[in-house]
Amino acid sequence: MINNHFFVTGSHSDNALDLWIMNKKKPIFSLKNCHKPGSWLLSTASVKSSDLIASGGYDGNVNFYTFDKNTKSILKTHSLSGFDGCINAMKYSHVKGT
Description:
Layout: E1 6-11, E2 16-21, E3 29-31, E4 41-46, E5 52-57, E6 62-68, E7 73-80
Antiparallel strand pairs: 1-2, 2-3, 4-5, 5-6, 6-7
C-alpha cells in the first residue's frame, strides 16, 4: 500500500510490478521485466505515504522504484545484486533516530 488510494502488487508470472487504484478491477500501470529475464518477481514492499517501493526476485536482486503521483507510474531507480538465494519476503522498518 502506497497511500489510501494506491497500492502495488508483484506478478511472478509476467515479472511485472502493477500499480492499482482502490476499487478498480485492473491495474492502471504495469512495469514489465522488473527482474532478469527468466527470473520471477517474488516480493514487494513500500513505505506508506511515500514514493518508495522495492521488489525482491528469484535472481537475488532487490530493486528500488519511485511512484510518480502526477503521471501515475512507477520508475526503477536502483538495484542491489549479489544476494544468495531468492528474496521472497521484504519489509521496511521504521526506526526512530536519536
